[in-house]
Amino acid sequence: MTVSLRGGYQQQGNCLLFSFTGQLDAYSEKQFLSFITDHRTSTPQPLVIDLSRIDFIDSSGLGALVQLAKQCNEQGVQFLVVGNARVVQTVKLVRLEQFLHLQPDLDTALGSLAA
Q1: pLDDT tens, 21-35?
Q2: How far apart are CA 115 and CA 112, in angstroms?
Q3: Which domains can be identified in the chain, with CATH numbers?
Q4: CB-based contact 1:28 (threshold 8 Å)
């Protein structure tokens, strides 16, 4: 991870939960994708990306999310993104909220996986 982006992950029930803090931008998007790719298991399971503590996201960050969503769609794996007001505003600006399965909070995201 770069200085501008910190991340962690954990198994949360039947899904992998990735949480990030900082900035998801052109400087950190490669590390963001590598971190997730390196920690995904060989067994396909739902991914939840928690961006509720992200300070800034730009088009490169959105591109990385789209790339992950496409991979998950191809594998038939559920993919959800949790965002704060700043992330939600940016995602809605480019009309990607449905494609990225944007969730209002972590509890809602995890609850929708159980359904």
Answers
A1: 999 999 999 999 999
A2: 5
A3: 5-114 (3.30.750.24)
A4: yes
